[in-house]
Design a protein that fits this description.
The chain is of the alpha+beta class and 528 residues long. The strands form 7 sheets. Strands 8, 9, 10, 11, 12, 13, 14, 16, 17, 19 and 20 form an 11-stranded mixed sheet that branches. Strands 26-25-24-32-27 form a 5-stranded mixed sheet, with helices on both faces. Helix 3 runs parallel beside helix 7. The longest helix is centred in the N-terminal third of the chain and has 18 residues. The relative contact order is 0.07.
């Protein structure tokens, strides 16, 4: 009997040891881990998890399966602890509780598909390194999220355009956060070298937009050939991966209002069309296909703000916000989205001039200021704010290079009893003098015009109202402002009445005094 009792006790101890424990193992399904409690092991009373930084991860436990209740990044290192309360009749031998600990790294599923071809009518199939239960695809800011009923290594994203690029991301578990999306680029099936461009062809881009070209074949297949711009652009080309080139502009980049044209390497076929996906063009350009983009022009309001800041307008601008930083990036952003504020006239100027001002609209005041700036910077003097002008304006603002001539304005009263010309410089009247405008058969046109050409002395020629020709050499102090009309000295017996064929004739002494104040861009207004 004693022997039987000993055998029974030994058997009981063996059963407790074999069936009175628990194990914690990685979960093969959608969970993080699974707690297996043996028949005599007791009851699972809780589980905790912490990441590598010691932060707690909230968990839910169902039938021994442990599942995070918040998104955990794929590849995260977690420490999981499960607590099991043993039955009282075994607790005396093995302890009241059992704690199982497991260090586990959450699963990852990287993209295997980066570049692929798609036959016409087929869907875009994307492969992952491991089955995914959750994925997202689309473009930045416009991602489609999908939860799969059954995890899959290869996911069909359905019909797409003939070619294009999508951002794709996948996670093996539904509770995992999605990793950073990677681009997947596809091309039409075939042997031609094709290229997908981003932004899409003919799109509007910012002056500093990066241009990405992904080729259907590795870059090594292009040899030394590289894309080229039709006009020089500051920036650098870099290789992002074996199929992709990225151009990063520097400084003012492409420039405001620019038309950007890029030629692909010889033989490359352009993929063009839509904003996110693209359709293949029908032709291959042996000498290199071209793709174009446009950059929006800077706003008129910002143009006026800069011209005021540089002293080319007779106004001061007072911003409602902090001054725009001098860097090219901040200045370019302000050119498109200008700061708000107010303009004030620097001086008390004639209403004939001030009535023409509009901060949001280009007028003769704008054109004159632009021409003065262009002349000072040795740019083409046309009164138009093209890419070169904007670049120069931003550079001048950064370097504090202001107008050294001051602001001049000439007002001519054509229809007064005595015709006069008044020169105002920096708000001060320098001279008012009688002058002659055009005869009734050749009247001087009313309007406001910027000086565009000047001569200390020149020969003036043209046609008289009666059809005869005139040639007048030795004409001094000439400032052309409207076609063949100019301010200039001319010897007459009297001044103050219509006598010319359109010009404003002045006594030589008055013309000599006015001439130094009329650089390119000076406004001459012929008023009634």
């Amino acid at each position: 009997m004693l022997l039987l009792a000993v055998v029974a006790v030994v058997g009981l101890i063996a059963a407790v040891l074999l069936l009175g424990d628990a194990s914690l193992v990685p979960d093969a399904g959608n969970g993080l881990a699974t707690v297996d409690v043996e028949a005599l092991g007791g009851t699972l009373v809780g589980a905790t998890a912490h990441d590598a930084h010691g932060h707690a991860v909230p968990l839910a436990v169902h039938d021994g399966r442990i599942v995070p209740r918040s998104h955990v990044a794929p590849g995260a290192l977690l420490t999981v602890t499960a607590t099991v309360r043993r039955p009282s009749w075994t607790g005396w031998a093995l302890g009241k509780q059992s704690r199982q600990r497991l260090t586990i790294r959450t699963p990852k599923a990287g993209l295997r598909t980066r570049w692929t071809t798609v036959r016409s009518g087929s869907g875009l199939r994307v492969a992952f390194a491991a089955p995914v239960a959750r994925l997202a695809y689309g473009t930045a800011g416009h991602m489609h999220h999908v939860v799969l009923h059954h995890p899959r290594r290869v996911v069909d994203l359905g019909g797409q355009a003939a070619a294009g690029t999508l951002l794709v991301s996948g996670a093996p578990r539904t509770w995992e956060g999605l990793p950073r999306a990677a681009p997947v680029t596809w091309f039409p099936a075939g042997s031609a070298t094709t290229a997908v461009v981003d932004p899409a062809p003919d799109a509007s881009i910012s002056p500093t937009s990066k241009l990405t070209l992904t080729f259907s074949k590795p870059l090594s297949a292009l040899g030394s050939a590289r894309p080229t711009f039709a006009a020089p652009v500051d920036g650098t080309w870099s290789r992002r991966d074996s199929h992709t080139l990225v151009f990063t502009p520097s400084g003012v980049g492409f420039g405001l209002g620019a038309h950007v044209q890029l030629t692909l390497p010889a033989g490359a076929q352009l993929v063009s069309g839509g904003s996110t996906t693209q359709t293949i063009s029908d032709t291959t350009a042996p000498s290199g296909a071209t793709v174009s983009w446009t950059v929006p022009p800077g706003s008129t309001l910002r143009l006026h703000e800069l011209l005021s800041q540089l002293g080319y307008l007779p106004l001061d601008f007072h911003s409602d916000a902090a001054p725009v930083a001098a860097g090219d990036g901040a200045q370019l952003r302000a050119a498109i989205d200008p700061p708000r504020g107010s303009f004030d006239w620097r001086w008390d100027l004639p209403s004939q001039l001030t009535s023409q001002w509009n901060p949001d609209t280009e007028t003769a005041i704008t054109r004159g200021a632009l021409m003065a700036f262009q002349s000072d910077r040795e740019l083409t003097v046309d009164g138009l704010a093209g890419p070169d002008v904007w670049s120069a304006l931003i550079a001048a603002a950064r370097e504090h290079k202001t107008n050294a001539h001051g602001y001049s304005y000439v007002l001519v009263h054509r229809d007064a009893a005595q015709q006069t010309a008044t020169l105002i410089h920096n708000g001060k009247t320098i001279i008012t003098t009688p002058g002659n405008t055009g005869v009734p058969a050749a009247p001087t046109e009313l309007g406001t015009f910027p000086v565009y050409l000047r001569y200390d002395e020149t020969t003036m020629s043209g046609t008289n109202p009666d059809g005869s020709r005139y040639v007048d050499p030795g004409i001094k102090w000439v400032s052309y402002f409207n076609g063949g009309d100019a301010l200039h000295a001319f010897d007459r017996a009297s001044y103050g009445s219509p006598q010319s064929v359109g010009c404003v004739e002045l006594p030589e002494s008055a013309a000599a005094k006015i001439y130094p104040y009329t650089p390119i861009g000076t406004l001459v207004q012929i008023a009634a």
